[in-house]
Amino acid sequence: MMACADHHPCTSQHCSHRSHGYERLGIHRHHYERTSTTPSRTHPVTAGVTHSPEVPPLIFNGDRDKSELFLDKFISYEIVNGDSWQFTTPFLKVALCLSYMNGPKIDSWARHRRLWLKAQKDAGVSMMDQSLWDDFEANFRRAYAYQDAKLTAYQN
Hints:
Elements: H1 29-32, H2 67-80, H3 85-88, H4 90-99, H5 107-122, H6 131-145, H7 147-155
Helix pairs in contact: 4-5, 4-6
């Protein structure tokens, strides 16, 4: 039996290690679950545990032509799951978005953003601080989404 970061033993109901994106970051389900007033969605293996609908965005591999589509799909995912803690907590929203980034064109940028996010938390910035998401989104757009607009402006 494995132990989580807070030394709770992991069990199939306590810490299923299913792919919600957080486990890759070392954050286990019991760290971010909360009771919701919305009807719960159940899974036969973990009946009674609230789950987000399985409509996450595709992995973003750093292809600038797909950056706006990635953000659109992530925002759509947020709209569908807006009452979930991972979307009402800006720190977790950034961590979740980063977990959908993988590939040689994005790995270095995503690693720097994870280190930045951890540094913000270590410096005492609240996990509820909206500027965490705002800064992350602005940096993502500068790095990946606005390149075509800059090129078009330069060419004209």
